[in-house]
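TL;DR need structure tokens for one chain.
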Amino acid sequence: MLRRLHSVPGLIAALFFVVITLTGAALSVNPVLERARLTGGAHTPLDVATLADRVSTHVPGVTKVVRRPSGAIIAYHDVDGEQQASVIDPSTGNVVGPWQPSPVVRWLTNLHRKLLLGDGGRLATGATAAAMLLVVVSGLVLLARRMGGWAHLFGRIRGDTLQRLHNETARVALAGLTLSALTGFVLSLTTFGLIPEGGATQPQFTQAARIDAAHLQPVGQIAALRTLDVAALRQVTLPAKGEPPGSIEVKTVDGAGYVDPSSGRWLAWQPADGWQRLHAVVRMLHTGEGLWWLGLLLGASSLCVSLLAVTGVLLWARRRQAMPRLSGASSPRDADTVLLVGSEGNSTWGFAAALHRALTQAGLRVHVAPMNDIAYEYHSMRRLVVLTATYGDGDAPASATHFLPKLAQSAAGQGVSFAVLGFGDRQFPHFCGYAAAVQSALAAKGFDALLEPGTVDRQSEPEFRAWCTRLGEALGVELDIRYTPSLPRTIPLTLVAREDYDADPQTLTSVLRFVRAGRRRTPWTWLAKPGLPKFESGDLVGIVPPGSASPRYYSLASASSDGFIEICVRRHPDGLCSGYLTGLKPGQTIDAFVRPHPHFRPGEGSAPVILIGAGTGIGPLVGFVRQNSARRPMYLYFGARDAGRGFLYRDELAGLVRDRRLLGLKTAFSRSGRRAYVQDRLIGDARGLRSLVLHGAQIMVCGGRGMADGVARAWERILDGSGLSVSQLKMQGRYVEDVY
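>> reply
TL;DR here they are.
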């Protein structure tokens, strides 16, 4: 529901958002330009009587003096029967130049306030302000949820390039956009009389207005005007020469009144009421008039809306495209099998569609729906299958935010079996945390578990297929799963170099280096780095091997600034992709794509980094060390089977140590020399490592799941009694893993 509140108004009003915010950004510069044109005396303390006297002396026929929010003083005066406006130097009263409002500013203001359409346009801009306020507030809540709570709102944003661009821009602009939308909406309500503008009561005269024309005081000596500071002035209207003398009308930020020019006393005064003061503050906050720096900040925020609109529409279109079309689905009343889907970006629906087809082909009557649409009662349901992603670090995805409360009210439970499959990323501390919560809630409700809950890491098709096989066995049917993932656009890569380790052809490990295909290797190729997308060490390259529809992912040991793509691959028995890659010869070409993996990167700052890897897991760690031109303290613990053909990057690591990009290198070999595992080396250096962590060090682990689990246990021993734990460090982003 919250996602719809955010996207639907945004899609409908996207064009209006762009027009209004771009014109608002252009208008935000005007207060700065006005302030830049002010003379030196504009900010000097001055009373209204002195200002009026100076202007009257130097500007014949002056009838009105206005102080604009920027501080500019404008005098309106008669010249040969025509009224003119001039900019005044308040320190002298001299005319600086003519005052002529810019026709461009006037046109932009008209477009901004009413779309050049009169009252109908004002109504449209008011509705746009309301829609923007709804989009901004819902977006702020969604961002907080994505970040894992309000306390993490300013942490590192995860996701692909498009998601991070949208969310990073939103995080920067949200405060300014909230203020602009809220104040714009209030001004719109005031325009249509839904909120009073104030000032309906006229100043009440305290005495009869009998002006003694024979004894008029010089304006510079009028006591009432001498008590008013020009900084609070809005305008003062003086009696025109040649006409019967009248009172002097004064308007300030604090109120309005009339002054007797013969006695110098107030004839009437009406303080500004609360509505007037509110309207003035709202107008100042919306336009930046009087606070030029705020105007610039609001203008900068407004400029972000165009980017937010474009990226928002692209994200919406991508989610829509990811939604599959299901055929043959049964109604909630008739279905014996209910398949509920929890998804944030709709990628889980592709897996749900494949499972739905297989269950239907197996003779089951299947109803498919988002988890939020769980019914109070299913008359024919015998089994419930839940496929759900996890949002952020353990939260419900967009289509499942209301599932648990609705489940508590549901009549279903007894006599119904269930199975849960979670989708997530193992890099998060609470991997598939929401799926675990759903499993527990269903069991507590009285559902019977068909099998243990399953998990799928980073949309792994083999893991999904393996779980479906277990589900079919539990149901007593054979499930024919046909899932074809949609892949991003690939680029051709040519293998230009390889280095092989381990003489056993069954366990061959290779370091493979690729460049963009179709580019001649010249001395300038490495400088220009043509044809490669932007990526960092630790990001992933996806490769679809021949005979498979699913990509395999490998961590990158290089960055795009290196001009090549480098990976480490170990051949596995019957490994389709590893056998394909390790069988390549220089000059051969593959198709691949790069996927960002921003979670697995050294954090910002200069704190030490402890790198721990085994086997091919050393790849991205070497990349981090290569990029360490600032000589940040980095320590590498590397484990392999033997010190001979198993020591990847041996010579390069020695050079990086000499170059001080790597301060320490410890190795552990399980089948040669003093046999040990990498966690043994960690325990041996426990005292120093504990000190590094207590001083802010980050820990990065890359390699197999078994190794990573052993390393985590070793760290629990190292940190015992320190007040820290692996879980706490993961929550802080100081313990990150890339495991497989």
